[in-house]
Amino acid sequence: MANLTLVQAINLALTQEMQHDDRVVLLGEDISINGGVFRVTEGLHERFGSDRVIDTPLAESGIMGTSVGLAIAGMRPVPEIQFEGFLGPAYDQLVNHAGRMRVRTRSALTIPLTVRVPVGGGIHAPELHSDSPEAIYTHSKGIKVVMPSTPYDAKGLLISAIRDPDPVIFFEPKRVYRSFREEVPEEEYTIEIGQAKVVNEGSDITIVTWGAPVYQCLAAMDNLPEDVSVELIDLRTIYPMDIDTVIQSVQKTGRCVIVHEAPLTAGLGAEISSQIQESCFLYLEAPVQRVAGFDTIMPYYKLELSYLPEAPRIEKGIKECLAY
Amino acid sequence: MAKTAISSKRLSDQLPNQVLIDWLRSMQLIREFESRTMQAYQQAKIGGFCHVYTGQEACAVGTLACVNDDDPVVLAYRDHGHALARKMTPEACMAEMFGKTTGCAKGKGGSMHMFDRPHWLFGGHGIVGAQTPLGTGLAFAAKYEREVLGQGLDGSEAKKKVSLCYLGDGALNQGAFHEAQNLAGLFSLPVIYIVENNGYSMGTAIQRGTTMPDDLCLKAAGYGIDAIQIDGMDIRNLYDHFKPFADACRAEQKPGFVDLKTYRYQGHSLSDPQKYRTKDEVDQWKERDSIAALLHHLMTERACVSEEDWKNMTGDIRQQVREAVDLADKAPDPDVATELYSDVYANPQKGLSPSCDYNHGLKNPLL
Lengths: 324, 367
Description:
Distance between the termini of chain A: 45 Å
Strand order of the largest sheet of chain A: 9-11-10-13-14
Number of strands of chain B: 7
Radius of gyration of chain A: 19 Å
CATH architecture of the largest domain in chain A: 3-Layer(aba) Sandwich
Helix content of chain A: 25-40%
CATH superfamily of the largest domain in chain A: Thiamin diphosphate (ThDP)-binding fold, Pyr/PP domains
Oligomer: heterodimer
CATH topology of the largest domain in chain B: Rossmann fold
Structural class of chain B: alpha/beta
Shape of chain B: globular
Order of helices and strands of chain B: HHEHHHEHEEEHHEHEHHHH
Radius of gyration of chain B: 21 Å
Largest interface: A-B, 38 and 48 residues
CATH superfamily of the largest domain in chain B: Thiamin diphosphate (ThDP)-binding fold, Pyr/PP domains
Distance between the termini of chain B: 40 Å
Number of strands of chain A: 14
Strand order of the largest sheet of chain B: 1-2-3-7-6
Helix content of chain B: 40-55%
Largest sheet of chain A: 5 strands, mixed
């Protein structure tokens, strides 16, 4: 066991997967000699050499397309896209090739690809460096979407992603990268993709979230009256979504607040809310609430915390849902 | 590389002293501005990522000196120098980075998004290479105004324009740039792609990132675009070669490509550990510093600037930039109720926020 940050846990998972599987190669902008813009791949170049930890030109379409080519040839590429906003140039290769190759070839070709992408706001960066595009890729079928919020989950989920036979976008919340440490086992372990985690058991209200807002939800819960019992669910995997865990919880509590950084309209909160009303209609004591980013472009840092679903806004959402 | 033989009469030698003194002032303003930018970044007054222009000053000042004030300009994210060279006030530039309402984009864009429409500066863009098709489009519009509309879209007199589209050497490898060049070559559009070749795409040296790194002009040849390699550390040499090149692109309404050799003294961004280069390499380039070289020329060969003039100039500039920082510091933060939701669409939209009614934002200070 070691006390690791999210960055270190991901680095450890990459190291171990590269050690036992020669098919795993990393490629991305400045990931090799410089260790990546967030230093996630630090030390891997020294350990595995530049044939397996590859500095690429600044060319996201090329990085993603080359990774798809590597994958259909049987390799296990793990490209890094430096910021979620830089997925734009790679979108065509990711959505139109990686996501569709299996169905297009009736499983003759598969894409065991893990795309690592720092995601989300809270680090004072402007748009293109602070966005939350997980709904876009959830809507693009053939791709799995994962977003861990803890070092322990990050290691287990990344190992699962690399071993997964299908493409996985592995979103890493930047705000959590170095925000805290926790015990992470040295040995390899996996966490199944598609399983939510109940962070806190409760009986009065359910909160569903993922990524960095988990910590804003915990902060909001600290400010609630002591007799309010909150069940906090961290989805961990966004697609395929563990909706059963959500439904079981809402059938128990009758109330639900969904929290995400991405803009409200057509965000994942809408999908989750819809599934809840389909399965929990007669259990609901209040309309499902959403606390999300607003329908605007992610603002520069002076307004950043006014955009993000911070604890006071989540607390208000919880109280409104409880008071209904 | 295009260099002028010492014996030949240089084009820049025909310019009056004051023009070169203005170049010196402009370059020194950028350098002083960037040193205060670094300081403000370290004091956490600037958010996010910040890419300074120190070392490359001659590129922006020299190339912009060769075109007209109403020729369109578009570039990437290392954009403070071009904004200042295009006469954006230091206050508007600094306040933008501070996220203040008096910034050129109302403090909503930050360091990477310097826009100044009245000065024909079309930004400041954050995705590597993504600005290059915009340069093609700006040139298309200018050509359309003259050849189809017979006047400018704003009613102004139609004229032969040339658009300047700046990019770094890292952007050479983005797909968008190749599409942009092909279109410009195909339609014969008056856009000059100026590659500010500082040798590194973030932390990756050019020979590790692109083919034919010593002769980038070969790449432009693939699109039928005339190309020239110029030393961008010597502003007089830059003018000598870029001026006739830009004039030809304007006159013949055709695209161009410039491999402009330069160097950045600081890291890619201010959070760059710079493991990829040595201090010796940086020092070697600093010996060819563009400001020092121009100052030397003006003090000795032209003998039109004295030690005291230079002292006064640097003092004035220091004061000007200090005032810009003070003004940015004192300027108001954006108001959440108006600025978080404004400027997303032209017309008020319902429901942008569940907690606020729509309010129009402030007017952009530069528009």
